[in-house]
Design goal:
heterotrimer, A mainly alpha, B mainly alpha, C mainly alpha, B: mainly alpha, Four Helix Bundle (Hemerythrin (Met), subunit A), 3 domains, 7 helices, C: mainly alpha, Helix Hairpins, 3 helices, about 75% helix
């Protein structure tokens, strides 16, 4: 116990890292479940249904499959680079998630903020740096697979990521001009931050003054993570190639997880920069919003209970009964006032991330793909000028009073 | 053995190992990866020296863009897999010991110089965020002309690369 | 105990020396380019250490400019290398010893 009180930073950081890692890995697995379910329902079918109630154990089955599949290593020219590429991709994708604040810094345990793993003063710049090294995972994977199709797929994919990274960074600078700081806490809460309301009911989130920046950011983010409609280099996998063709079992799973982790990172960034982070859209006077998470979970529990009794049979009924109990228990815990107040920030943050991820999955189910040359000309000839114009107009609007005053 | 000293020695070791591997590697892609390792460890050293902005710019621009360019060119040109580096006998048996001795002497004189006595206390990120604002003020007020000149230089480089790499039609 | 600046300067000198060795002894033109980047990095480290020692920001501004100029130089240099490789079909600098091929 003495060790814990003498080194609070170290102990709390280690616990936070372990918990975050566990939560992120579970979230990655269940993001695949969510994606398959949403796409299925958009396409008027059901999706995974039989592996566990409503397919909830499907990610577990997929994970087991990846672990036990045979690891076929093709005759690659360079084993070190071949093994290094997926490790690089996954570790960088997970490192980026550590920089993100999931809740306000006020919620503390042993004097350390609970929901923020690391609070760097130039957090945004570091996040972009980590994203820019993530390109190596793709390029090296394509090259070391010793196959022309993998090489072309890898080079195309990394060229696409580099091109859209420029637009991504520039579309964010408008927000930085408004907030005058690179730290996430200042962007959300700072002097020109996103707390407070216009006209008493429109929250001061950056999406309203920077709507063009938000749209540019979303487009560039979808291209950066190689999702539809920008996934031609990856969709070649469905035909013959792509940079992760020659990878099997766990190395492929690492690329897969890295892609979803990148998606989560980009959604978290969009939430923090444009959608107000952990701030709630309702005014603080409305104290009933404290009970929203608890009420939501209990409603979910009631629906699951109804489903358990009426429609499920056999082992699915047992599994769904467990889910019901978890939901009801979680809801009851969230209704305790102490927990409800602390959990507000995380609840709103998660809700916003889920909204953006739903938008991503919706786009995947609905839109066709760009051809590669259309993709590159869109990135350089349309998106970059629009992002630059957004930046120039924002800068002019901010500096205008000073210019007018000095003639 | 405080934490900054340990971090310094680990990063210095990684940087030197990376640089030696750059020389000794047979394949250019391994040299490129070693150089990326050197740049990343230098970024951590910049953090220790209290320049977080420069560390982030180093990773973002140097390791994340320039080295990607190198790696692309190596991949596209299928840069030669076998490459012998012949150290002549004079270099191996006389040069290396002499170089080592020179290094010892430089280290000795640096350690006894006034500049060398200043201690970098590894100031972390807190209290240094103002440095980003101050750095940008210096950049845009005192060094505005070099800033604009380098932006024109980059424009010239883009045009030059486009013209050079175009196929003769 | 924290780290004296002289340690950083010695590291910078060592890296610069290794960069020079790589420049002199390697034959692949891309590796020679990379050794130039290594030398520039060593110089950057020296700049940042001195900026810290004197508690001024001028060294950091100069590092910024060095990085930018290195980017421009790498772009043009690699374009030249690509053209060279297409014309001579070899990346060995010892083969580029005639004006006409």
């Amino acid at each position: 116990m003495g060790f814990i009180t003498q080194h609070p930073v170290l102990v709390v950081s280690l616990v936070k890292i372990a918990v975050l890692l566990f939560i992120v890995m579970t979230a990655l697995a269940y993001l695949t479940w969510l994606e398959r379910k949403v796409i299925a329902h958009i396409q008027s079918r059901v999706g995974p249904y039989y592996v566990g109630a409503h397919g909830l154990l499907q990610p577990l089955a997929d994970g087991l499959k990846f672990m036990f599949k045979e690891d076929v290593t093709p005759p690659v020219s360079d084993r070190l680079v071949y093994t290094l590429a997926p490790i690089l991709a996954l570790s960088l994708a997970l490192t980026a998630i550590a920089l993100i604040p999931f809740g306000p810094p006020g919620v503390q345990l042993l004097g350390q903020p609970v929901f923020i793993v690391s609070n760097v003063d130039i957090g945004l710049l570091f996040l972009f740096s980590i994203t820019s090294i993530g390109i190596y995972g793709v390029a090296l994977a394509g090259w070391s697979s010793n196959s022309k199709y993998s090489l072309m797929g890898g080079l195309r994919s990394s060229a696409q990521m580099i091109s859209y990274e420029v637009s991504l960074t520039i579309s964010v600078v408008g927000v930085l001009l408004l907030a005058s700081s690179l730290s996430f806490n200042d962007i959300i809460n700072g002097p020109n931050g996103q707390a407070g309301y216009w006209l008493h009911f429109i929250p001061k989130w950056n999406v309203f003054p920077q709507i063009i920046g938000f749209l540019c950011y979303l487009t560039a983010a979808v291209a950066e993570t190689n999702r539809i409609p920008f996934d031609l280099p990856e969709a070649e996998t469905e035909l013959v190639a792509g940079f992760h063709t020659e990878y099997s079992s766990f190395k492929f799973a690492m690329f897969f997880m890295a892609e979803y982790a990148n998606m989560i990172t980009v959604a978290c960034l969009a939430t923090i920069l444009f959608l107000g982070g952990w701030l709630s859209p309702f005014p603080d006077r409305w104290t009933w919003q404290l009970y929203l998470p608890g009420a939501g979970l209990i409603l979910l529990g009631i629906y699951c209970a109804y489903d358990t009794v009426k429609t499920m049979r056999g082992i699915a009924q047992l599994q769904f009964a467990v889910v019901t109990l978890l939901a009801l228990g979680g809801g009851a815990i969230c209704l305790i006032p102490v927990v409800a107040k602390d959990i507000q920030g995380v609840f709103w943050f998660t809700a916003k991330i889920l909204a953006i991820l739903f938008f991503y999955i919706w786009m995947r189910a609905t839109l066709p793909r760009f051809r590669y040359d259309q993709l590159m000309s869109f990135g350089w000839k349309l998106l970059l000028p629009v992002a630059l114009a957004n930046l120039v107009v924002t800068a002019l609007v901010i500096v205008w009073p000073m210019l007018v005053r000095h003639g | 053995m405080s934490v900054p000293v340990v971090i310094f020695f680990v990063c210095a070791l990684l940087a030197i190992v990376g640089a030696v591997r750059l020389i000794l590697a047979r394949e250019p892609i391994h040299s490129a990866l070693s150089l990326i390792l050197v740049m990343l460890s230098l970024a951590v050293l910049y953090l220790l020296l209290g320049a977080p902005f420069i560390a982030a710019v180093q990773i973002l621009v140097y390791a994340g863009a320039i080295m990607v360019l190198f790696v692309f060119v190596i991949m596209l040109l299928n840069a030669g897999t076998e490459e012998r580096t012949d150290f002549s006998k004079l270099a191996k048996y006389v040069g290396v010991p002499l170089g080592f001795f020179l290094l010892l002497e430089i280290g000795h004189w640096l350690a006894h110089s006034p500049a060398g006595a200043v201690v970098a206390n590894g100031a972390g990120a807190s209290g240094r965020a103002a440095d980003t604002a101050k750095l940008s003020e210096q950049l845009f007020r005192q060094y505005l002309f070099p800033f604009e000149a380098t932006s024109i230089l980059i424009l010239i480089a883009i045009l030059g690369a486009l013209v050079l790499a175009r196929k003769e039609e | 105990m924290s780290v004296p600046i002289s340690y950083y300067l010695v590291l910078s000198a060592v890296l610069f020396g290794l960069g020079v060795v790589a420049f002199v002894f390697k034959r692949n033109i891309i590796t020679i380019f990379m050794s130039i980047e290594l030398m520039l990095n060593a110089v950057n480290l020296a700049f940042v250490s001195f900026a810290r020692a004197q508690n001024q920001l001028d060294g950091l501004v100069f590092v910024f400019f060095v990085i930018v100029v290195a980017a421009a130089e790498a772009a043009v240099g690699l374009a030249i290398v690509i053209m060279l490789a297409q014309n001579r079909q070899s990346l060995n600098v010892e083969r580029v010893n005639q004006l006409k091929f």
